[in-house]
Amino acid sequence: GMGSKNQDCDYVGVYSVVYSGLNIRYGRVNECGIDCVKFGGTTNLDVSYNELSGACNVAEDHGLIYTYNVVSGDGQITNVDVHHNILYNSYGSPEGVNNNTLYANGIYLDGYNQGVNVYKNIFKGNIARNNIVCNIRNDVNLYDNIGLLDQPGSRGFSLSNIIGRPMGMTVKRNVWYMP
Question: Is this model's pTM higher than 0.70 or not?
């Protein structure tokens, strides 16, 4: 992922904002400075059958797939399916961090997301923090994902820093294992 100077899309492999009806499928994106796939303000999006690796080479806090929305401006993320992806190597860069904790993730649902389904993804390992992390609002379903936890402090799923009260969230049949 190439970047531009001081823009929000710096070092992102695939970036979509304020778009409807987009499919990001059957791709291979690797060795991105920040995110392999990033989207915001998007409706009717399908991110599937991709191989994504090597995110967060210049950032400590993002993911292989990352999304964020503010309440106004970018719009809401709705009706999104993230499925059948293979994800690995989300490193996290320690440069400029005041502690040794890296927050590089597999799938990072940040901000005001709703109507997002994350299912049947495979996390092959070397993900610094969470396979899936949610900082979401409502109507998020996480199911049938499988992942390797092979880094110190790594987690399968984390729900943190909730923006608003989570409503209608379902987490089921996910399998996280240690080597």
Answer: yes
